[in-house]
Prior knowledge:
Elements: H1 2-20, E1 32-34, E2 41-44, H2 46-53, H3 57-60, H4 69-76, H5 83-98, H6 108-111, E3 112-113
Antiparallel strand pairs: 1-2, 2-3
Amino acid sequence: MKTILILISLLSFVMLSGPAMGAPSNMGAGQIILAGGKRGDIAFPHHLHQDKLKDCNRCHSLFPQQKQAIEKLKSEGTLKAKQVMNKLCVACHRSERNAGRPGGPTLCSKCHSMK
């Protein structure tokens, strides 16, 4: 009986500590529409990135986890235009390709969509 209680406690700890340790749990919207300026909005596959990156802070160290955070920081002058795109998106996509892994798009037209 004591062994079963220990196993249940250990299993509970592992299951509950995953999200706290930075493991993605597909939080937030599955897809987010980001304001993309003159080139058109961006349909950002949020859950796909969570599953692949496994570390929310890789992106959210630059902006908080809240709706319209990027637009708010741009309007406040805290975040420069194209800073997220160049420092995060394109840089990461190129890095993945250079490492021989599938990387995301690096051309404007592959993410921005004019309606």
